[in-house]
């Protein structure tokens, strides 16, 4: 027979557990509502300074030539540092926007890889949903069990593409100033070719992000004025930088060269094929690069730089010029964009 004291204790424990559960549900509800409310207040456009009227390439800035020790040492794939020489070049001051990409699509009829049918014979073993055109989308989970399984917050979403970056129910209406995402290296190259430009090499991108300075920095601190993740990734996003997700281009101060969002907001594609470290890389900017070490068009992965709005101190930490990461060549994602370069003289 149950002791009355045991009954009382059991009842109190049950009430305590239910109360904790209710508080948890209320917390999730409040947090979700707060996130939605904050998102509704986020600006859709950020004012950019007018391009210089005498610039030969409006919307681009000049990056002077230089020689520097490329790379970092925080993660193994970021080193060892390599001496590279970079000739001067022009670079888009912002990431390519939805409006800019839409103009390209309208003029050419281009169809992105995320919109094209997938050939099952070239992709054996894929599940039925992944054989549908789509892209990988970040979905904030309620809870995670470690950071080893990225499928806890990444989902392949049929129907996701640059016009519908979060899936078929989403759109980019009113978001013409946001960076275009859900594009692949082939899509970015097609746009660049249309503009008579190219994608930056890994070295060019890093040199520009370092504001053409040879000095290295050992700091791994989260940048205070960039679109990154504040809070505990991937379950708590404090959005202290003003945005819970993507931001329009140019919402944060430009670097010393006049380039916006080189760190954070979206990862950016480079023209270089991925290698596990800089020692094995054959960057065309390296003085010792052989003539055949050109930008790969068939590599399985390419280097992306700059981090994104998903980079946090407890995960990623790639909001640094020297950081690098691989990206599958044919896989579009909701946190990846690009900008273009143009070789030539400052005038």
Keyword list:
14% strand; globular; single chain; alpha+beta; disordered N terminus; 3-stranded antiparallel β-sheet; 347 residues; 4 helices; 11 strands
In short:
With 347 residues, the chain is α+β, with helices and mostly antiparallel strands. It has helices at residues 4-41, 98-108, 185-194, 202-209; strands spanning 60-63, 66-70, 82-86, 89-92, 134-138, 154-158, 267-273, 301-305, 325-328, 336-337, 341-343.
Helix content: 10-25%
Question: With helices defined by DSSP (H or I, 4 residues minimum), what is the helix count?
Answer: 4
Largest sheet: 4 strands, mixed
Could you list the spans in which at least 5 consecutive residues all have pLDDT below 50?
1-34, 290-294
Q: Gyration radius, to the nearest Å?
A: 23 Å
- Average pLDDT over all residues: 86
> Gap between N and C termini, in Å?
94 Å
Principal-axis shape: globular
Order of helices and strands: HEEEEHEEHHEEEEE
Q: Strand pairing plus helix content: what structural class?
A: alpha+beta
Strand content: 5-15%
The order of strands across the largest sheet is 9-8-7-10
- The number of strands is 11
Description:
The chain has helices at about 5-40, 100-110, 185-195, 200-210, and strands at about 60-65, 65-70, 80-85, 90, 135-140, 155-160, 265-275, 300-305, 325-330, 335, 340-345. It is α+β, with helices and mostly antiparallel strands and about 350 residues long. It is globular, with a radius of gyration of 23 Å. Residues about 1-35 and about 290-295 have low confidence and may be disordered.
């Amino acid at each position: 027979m149950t002791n009355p004291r045991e009954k009382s204790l059991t009842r109190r424990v049950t009430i305590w557990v239910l109360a904790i559960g209710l508080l948890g549900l209320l917390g999730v509800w409040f947090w979700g509502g707060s996130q939605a409310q904050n998102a509704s207040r986020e600006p859709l456009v950020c004012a950019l300074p007018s391009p210089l009227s005498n610039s030969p390439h409006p919307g681009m800035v000049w990056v002077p030539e230089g020689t520097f020790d490329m790379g970092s040492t925080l993660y193994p794939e970021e080193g060892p540092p390599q001496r590279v020489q970079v000739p001067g070049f022009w670079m888009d001051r912002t990431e390519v926007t939805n409006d800019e990409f839409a103009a390209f699509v309208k003029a050419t009829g281009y169809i992105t890889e995320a919109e094209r049918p997938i050939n099952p014979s070239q992709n054996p073993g894929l599940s039925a949903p992944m054989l549908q055109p789509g892209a990988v989308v970040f979905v904030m989970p309620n809870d995670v069990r470690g950071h080893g399984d990225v499928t806890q917050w990444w989902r392949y979403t049929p129907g996701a593409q640059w016009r519908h970056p979060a899936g078929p129910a989403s759109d980019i209406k009113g978001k013409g100033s946001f960076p275009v995402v859900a594009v692949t290296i082939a899509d970015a190259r097609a746009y660049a070719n249309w503009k008579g430009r190219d994608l930056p090499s890994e070295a060019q991108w890093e040199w520009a992000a370092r504001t053409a300075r040879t000095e290295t920095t050992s700091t791994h601190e989260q940048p205070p004025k960039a679109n990154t993740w504040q809070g505990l990734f991937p379950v708590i996003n404090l959005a202290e930088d003003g945005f819970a997700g993507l931001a329009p281009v140019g919402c944060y101060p430009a670097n010393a060269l006049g380039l916006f969002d080189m760190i954070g907001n979206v990862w950016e594609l480079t023209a270089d094929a991925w290698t596990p470290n800089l020692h094995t890389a054959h960057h065309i900017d390296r003085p010792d690069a052989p003539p055949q070490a050109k930008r790969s068009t068939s590599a399985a992965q390419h280097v992306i730089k700059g981090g994104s709005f998903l980079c946090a101190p407890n995960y990623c930490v790639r909001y640094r010029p020297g950081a690098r990461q691989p990206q599958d060549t044919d896989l579009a994602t909701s946190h990846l964009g690009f900008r273009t370069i143009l070789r030539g003289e400052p005038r």
